[in-house]
Design goal:
The complex is a heterodimer of chains A (253) and B (244).
Chain A: H1 2-25, H2 29-36, H3 39-72, H4 78-86, H5 93-114, H6 123-147, H7 151-159, H8 164-175, H9 177-193, H10 196-202, H11 212-222, H12 225-252
Helix pairs in contact in A: 2-12, 3-6, 3-9, 5-10, 6-9, 6-10, 7-8, 9-12, 11-12
Chain B: H1 2-22, E1 24-31, H2 35-48, E2 52-59, H3 61-69, E3 75-77, H4 81-89, E4 99-104, E5 106-111, H5 121-125, E6 131-134, H6 140-152, H7 155-161, E7 162-166, H8 169-178, E8 183-187, H9 188-191, E9 197-201, E10 207-213, H10 220-232, H11 235-239
Parallel strand pairs in B: 1-2, 1-3, 6-7, 6-8
Antiparallel strand pairs in B: 3-10, 4-10, 5-8, 5-9
The chains are: A mainly alpha (253), B alpha/beta (244).
Chain lengths: 253, 244
């Protein structure tokens, strides 16, 4: 049984590895190096990296307290709220972007226009779209992590004199650190790979709201397949690096 | 017992094979923006030619080019002549088979409550409007818009007011309808469907909608017959807002 199950891991892992290798070899090395320092590729990489990092940070700030509240407290409409937060996980990204666009067009834009604050078609829209597509996943992962923290630990810490906030930061959060690392990984991965929501809500403007996934789409429609492949490879490399880093940090921790 | 299950299945299988070999199949790769007229024409054709089945693939002209590269399809109907030129250059389409079906006409659309006194492109530049344009690298409408603006000497001033460049014309319509844009240059056939917008003709440049047969088509005869049918029924395009 062991061999059978392990071979499933190898099968999944290596079939992806094979397709990556074919993808990589379809570019001439010299061509690839030239595209790596291409202005459009670099600009997309920069936008993708800073929006995803900021999105991960903001999502955690929102998701950690929300997930903890769902795991530990009782309050009115709790179950309903939980389902509502989970719901977008079932949405295609396009719908998330479309919902954001309609929300901003009908409700918020008149208000924001008075304040001279543009969101749609700007990097702020990229950031918001990335938050929207990754938030439900972060809450889900953190909720599971907090519910699996032994309640007795918190009760004991409390009885030994910790204030509630101290219990949270010194007991609950460290006890849930594996879940926290998983939440960081899933949020960054979702944000970095976000496409449909970003395209619709931020417009997919070349060099302005062009993240790596949007850039892949644009270059496929321009017929510049080499550049699309180069962007794909850069995206894969960054994701791989970040996920490997988190995987090993998790083991260390 | 197994025999009794097996036999009807075999018969069914034989029937399936038989019906497949009887019906000729052609695959048409058409630009998504041509959905209305092409779908109507395919239905009309299938009603007239009982023996032929037409598979219709509707995607962006550029994406369809990728399918052609993979040697898929019998006919190609992109939304702009440049795509057909590219397909011919890559020897995917037989240039002798290329014919013009209709013309796309670009128009200016302006939100009605902001369109008072607006008669041409110059007028919209005098007001504070949010303008969108097709990405000239990706969308045929974008390329044509830039040509028109350059001819009128308005390109620089126009681009200063542009808040979004989209890869497809449908994305422009989305932002017009959701209220993020006040004005844009789109195709006439699409502008007809917009409510609450004033449509202003631009004159001059138009875009060809062409059809051609692939160099690798295995159903050349059926493809030629379908093409002839399309070229004969240009009134369907006209009815949908294209120019004949």
């Amino acid at each position: 049984m062991r061999i059978l199950f392990i071979s499933a891991v190898y099968l999944l892992g290596f079939s992806l590895f094979l397709s990556l290798a074919v993808f990589f070899l379809s570019l001439e090395p010299s061509e690839f190096l030239k595209l790596l320092i291409d202005f459009e590729v670099l600009s997309a990489l920069k936008l993708s990296v800073w929006t995803s990092l900021l999105s991960t940070l903001l999502v955690l700030v929102l998701a950690v307290p929300a997930a903890y509240a769902l795991a530990r407290y009782e309050f009115p409409l709790k179950r309903f709220a939980k389902v509502l937060i989970d719901l977008p996980m079932a949405f295609p990204e396009l719908l998330v972007g479309f919902l954001l666009l309609v929300l901003f067009s009908n409700l918020l834009t008149p208000l924001l226009e008075k304040l001279n604050f543009e969101v749609v078609f700007t990097p702020k829209a990229v950031l918001l779209a990335e938050i929207a597509v990754s938030l439900p996943f972060a809450v889900k992962v953190l909720y599971t992590a907090f519910t699996s923290v032994d309640l007795r630990l918190e009760v004991v810490a409390r009885s030994l004199g910790y204030a509630p906030l101290e219990v949270f930061f010194k007991v609950s959060l460290p006890a849930a650190r594996r879940g926290l690392a998983a939440a960081v990984a899933v949020t960054f991965a979702r944000s970095f790979g976000a496409f449909g929501a970003v395209l619709v809500f931020a417009g997919g403007v070349r060099l302005k709201t062009e993240t790596l996934p949007v850039g892949i789409f644009l270059n496929i429609s321009y017929g510049e397949l080499e550049k699309a492949i180069a962007m794909g490879l850069v995206l894969i490399a960054v994701s791989l690096g970040v996920l490997l880093l988190l995987e090993y940090l998790k083991v260390e921790g | 017992m197994p025999k009794r299950i097996f036999n009807p299945l075999l018969v069914l299988f034989a029937l399936l094979l038989f019906s497949c070999s009887q019906k000729e199949k052609i695959t048409v790769l058409a630009a998504a923006g041509l959905k209305e007229p092409i779908t109507q024409l395919v239905n009309l054709y299938e009603k007239n030619r009982k023996g032929v089945e037409v598979n219709l693939v509707l995607q962006g002209s550029g994406d369809l080019l990728t399918l052609l590269e993979a040697k898929k399809g019998d006919l190609y109907i992109p939304a702009a002549a440049s795509y057909m030129g590219e397909a011919v250059r890559r020897k995917l389409i037989d240039p002798k088979t290329v014919g013009v079906l209709a013309y796309h006409v670009p128009v200016l659309v302006v939100k009605e409550d902001k369109a008072k006194g607006v008669k041409n492109l110059d007028d919209i530049l005098q007001r504070s409007l949010k303008i969108g344009i097709g990405d000239p690298k990706a969308a045929a409408i974008g390329k044509l818009s830039v040509e028109i603006l350059k001819r009128l000497g308005l390109y620089g001033r126009f681009m200063k007011k542009v808040v979004v460049e989209t890869a497809t014309v449908n994305q422009l319509l989305l932002y017009l309808r959701s209220g993020q844009l006040d004005a844009a240059i789109v195709w006439k056939e699409l502008a007809r469907k917009l409510k609450g917008f004033k449509v202003i003709p631009l004159g001059g440049e138009v875009e060809k909608v062409e059809v051609g047969i692939t160099t690798f088509s295995k159903n050349r005869k059926a493809a030629e017959d379908f093409e002839k049918f399309l070229l004969k029924h240009s009134e369907v395009f006209e009815k949908e807002g294209f120019s004949p």
